[in-house]
Automatic annotation (TrEMBL):
Similarity section: Belongs to the cytochrome P450 family.
Listed name of the protein: Cytochrome P450 81Q32-like
Cofactor: heme
Provenance organism: Rhodamnia argentea
Membrane topology of this protein: Single-pass membrane protein
Gene Ontology MF annotations: heme binding; iron ion binding; oxidoreductase activity, acting on paired donors, with incorporation or reduction of molecular oxygen, NAD(P)H as one donor, and incorporation of one atom of oxygen
Places the protein is found: Membrane
Keyword Manganese: no
Length: 509
């Protein structure tokens, strides 16, 4: 009995001393300002959807570098260009870690994918592979034909749909979201595996695989938000909130089976096409097989490309078209630019995009007002550092509120208005005021591909069709919830072929 008491008293003293020293240490620290918080859950009750808006109002009260506790996880929110600059220059390496979340562990093959891996040799290798091979300018030039064909098929499908509405003067009401999602998905899938999975000329088996895969990706996205156990890790081993972990594991298994099927198919195609000898080919799977990557690494990379690269590009197009429908004068200006540079006899090519400043300004302005990743992707400090003169302890989650910076009236004139011309003459020099792709070593490696896909598709749609709103009301521009910031209402629009484009382009598709 005595032994038990000795044990209890020494354990309590140790715990007390530990808490005391921790408190002393944190009192000595100059932490960023913070709202009052509750024990154990910290500031979790303050965090309402959409999170970027909640964090913006907190930063208005507590300043551009603000500290919060999401349960036991310390968080610093950055909402000014100068603080963001510090994050991505002086502190870039220190902040290059990603926080360990339940969903990143389950969907990220145990934190071994490019987006989830901690900063270290594994991440460096995947990053090298992604930047220098899979998404290199050379490889992107090689996959141009895929993008041109997918955009041509999209234009053709709208043309057919509009032409069928004879009574309406060839003007059809079209649903845009799923079409733009299919476009981005097919482009990335073809770059990864060499096959398209949606639309015309698809074999029935592939269409079924695509349907299942799209379903799985949708479920994975829905489950990928933060889990309560990410902030209260002590509970992770004891409770499975709403069965989320079980569902995540189930979705990850289903996705793994589909991805493995794609690798196996490509492996046997490679063998068949060269009598058993491995052949040189340009899909991502081929590249990774040739370099000896394991099947799990390849599946992780496929999932990363699809998760990071499809909805981000398609929502950008959806927001941009919505803005143009609410600003027909800007749509006309973009159309005039296309008539001038491309003319009525062909569809635009990627080489044209650089000669279309009005279109580029529209895309930049859409990304400024509606960044698909409003808080970028969370970073984590692996050493103590300072931001804005405040101490940021090791293990702090860093959220850069790009959405707030891009709408800050101290940074942009009339920040909530759509004014593409504000980007004139800036030519990429946005000094941490415009950062939809993040910055620094963990910045988006797919920005070049995204700009090509979004630019090419918008150019072709604006050039070939007259677009109008479905009713008198402006298109609703409020955001819904989701991992990639969606429009609350999927976009619908009235679409009519432009007379000048019918003879030599639309009629020939
Ligand atoms: C408009 C389209 C896109 C936007 C707005 C976007 C935005 C972002 C952002 C904000 C990040 C996080 C940066 C940070 O942590 O600071 C990111 C990371 C990433 N993006 Fe994109 N992205 C887009 C398209 C793409 C595409 C097309 C791909 C590839 C096919 C891609 C692949 C990735 C990957 C792999 C990462 C993780 C990088 C790492 O952790 O090292 N993204 N993206």
């Amino acid at each position: 009995m005595d032994d038990v008491w000795v044990y209890i008293i020494s354990a309590s003293s140790c715990l007390f001393l530990l808490c005391f020293f921790k408190l002393q240490r944190s009192n000595r620290r100059n932490l960023p300002p913070s709202p009052p918080s509750l024990p154990i859950i910290g500031h979790l009750l303050l965090i309402k959807e959409p999170v970027h808006r909640t964090l913006q109002s907190l930063s208005h009260r507590y300043g551009p570098v603000l500290s919060l506790s999401f349960g036991s996880r310390p968080v610093v929110v950055v909402s000014s260009p100068s603080a963001a600059e510090e994050c991505f220059t002086r502190n870039d390496a220190v902040l290059a870690n990603r926080p360990h979340m339940l969903s990143s562990e389950i969907f990220g093959y145990g934190l071994t994918t490019i987006g989830t891996a901690p900063y270290g040799p594994l991440w460096r290798d995947l990053r090298r592979l992604t930047v220098l091979q899979i998404l290199s300018p050379h490889r992107l030039a090689g996959s141009l034909a895929i993008r041109l064909e997918e955009v041509r098929l999209l234009v053709k499908s709208f043309y057919k749909e509009a032409a069928m509405v004879a009574g309406g003067g060839g003007c059809a009401k079209v649903e845009m979201r799923s079409r733009l999602q299919d476009l981005s998905f097919n482009i990335i899938m073809r770059m990864i595996s060499g096959k398209r999975y949606f639309g015309a000329a698809i074999d029935a088996d592939d269409a079924e695989v695509a349907r299942q895969f799209r379903e799985v990706i949708k479920e994975a996205f829905e489950l990928s938000g933060t889990d309560p156990s990410d902030f209260l890790p002590a509970l992770r081993k004891v409770v499975d909130f709403k069965g989320r972990k079980r569902r995540m594991v189930d979705v990850a298994k289903r996705s793994d089976v589909i991805l493995q099927g794609m690798i196996d198919e490509l492996r046997s195609r490679r063998k068949r096409s060269d009598g058993g000898r491995e052949v040189e080919s340009k899909t991502m799977i081929d590249t990774m097989l040739s370099e000896g990557y394991s099947d799990d690494s390849i599946k992780g990379q496929m999932l990363s490309m699809l998760a990071a690269g499809t909805d981000t590009s398609s929502v950008t197009m959806e927001w941009a078209l919505s803005l143009l429908l609410n600003h027909p004068d800007v749509m006309k200006k973009a159309q005039a630019e296309l008539d001038d540079v491309v003319g009525p006899d062909r569809l635009p090519d990627e080489a044209d995009i650089q000669k279309l400043p009005c279109l580029q300004n529209i895309i930049n302005e859409a990304l400024r007002l509606f960044p698909p990743a409003p808080l970028l992707v969370p970073h984590e400090s692996f050493e103590d550092c300072t931001i804005g003169g405040f101490d940021v302890p090791q293990g702090t989650m860093i959220l850069v509120n790009a959405w707030a910076i891009q709408r800050d009236s101290k940074v942009w004139d009339d920040p909530t208005s759509f004014k593409p011309e504000r980007h004139e003459g800036l030519e990429g020099d946005h000094a941490y005021r415009l950062l939809p792709f993040g910055m620094g070593r963990r910045g988006c490696p797919g920005a070049g591909l995204a700009n090509r896909v979004v630019g090419l598709a918008l150019a072709a749609l604006i050039q070939c069709f007259e677009w109008e709103r479905v009713g008198e009301e402006p298109v609703d521009m409020s955001e819904g919830t989701g991992l990639v910031m969606p429009k609350r209402q999927p976009l619908e629009a009235m679409c009519k072929a432009r007379e000048c484009m019918v003879a030599n382009v639309l009629g020939q598709l």
